[in-house]
Every structure is written in structure tokens, then in C-alpha cells.
Amino acid sequence: MKKEKLHICHAEKEGKFVIMNASHAFTRNWFFDPDCTIDFLMKLTEKAINEGFSALRTTFEMTWSLENLSGSERIFEYGSKLNERLFPDYPCSILCQFNRWKFDQGLIK
Questions:
Q1: How far apart, in whole angstroms, are the C-alpha atoms of residue 86 and residue 37?
Q2: Cα-based torsion angle of the residue sequence 32, 34, 38, 39 in order, rounded to the nearest 10 degrees
Q3: CB of 38 closer than 8 Å to CB of 85
Q4: Would residue 45 count as lying in a domain?
């Protein structure tokens, strides 16, 4: 059986691939609140499951957190709360990308 190639444009049309900017995914009115972001991810995961997907898989480029937005200092809290509130009960995986030339090495570790 021949495998069908899934092109990004088709995946986008079918709702299988979504691109969001940081203002939509992480902030409301340019204010970062870890709890609001996690609630948003919970809803997205539930939506994916209800649409027949086995999980929500995400990747985030984190440079937005260096822009001195209100609440961006809560990035460590966000990471901790993901482990407490999201990952134990929701089939969601997240890959956060930190530019090693812009972020403190301690943060990346």
C-alpha cells in the first residue's frame, strides 16, 4: 500500500497543524499568566482528543519571554505548573525551544 504524503497546507486545512503567535498562545493583552496558558493548553488537548487525535503535540519558541512582558518572569513557575497540572492528566507533549545565544545557560539546563 502506498503511503500518502501529508503536506503542511493539507494538514493546516484539516486542522492537524496550527501556527500561533506568542500573543495568542502565551499572553492575553500582552500579559503572561502561567495558569491561563495551561488552561488554554488543556482546552486545546481536549479539543484534539474530541476530534479523534491521540494527543496534542506542540512546540514553542520561547524568545517572547525575553521581551519584558508583564508576567514573563513567571516562566519557571509555568514549567513547574505544567508538570503539576497538565502532564499527569492530559495527553500533551511540549517541546520548548530556547535560543542558547539569548538565554542564560542555567535556564536552559
A1: 11
A2: -70
A3: yes
A4: yes
Q: How far apart are CA 42 and CA 94, in angstroms?
A: 12
Q: Is residue 11 part of a domain?
A: no
Range of the domain at 47: 18-108
Would you say residue 10 lies in a domain? no
Q: What is the mean pLDDT of each run of 10 residues along the chain (109 residues)?
A: 64 78 74 92 95 92 87 90 96 92 82
Q: Which three cell numbers stand for residue 14?
A: 484539516
**Cα–Cα distance measured from residue 50 to residue 66, given in angstroms and rounded to the nearest whole number:** 35
Secondary structure letter of residue 4 according to DSSP = P
pTM: 0.82
Number of domains into which the chain is organized: 1
11 in Cβ contact with 4 (< 8 Å) = no
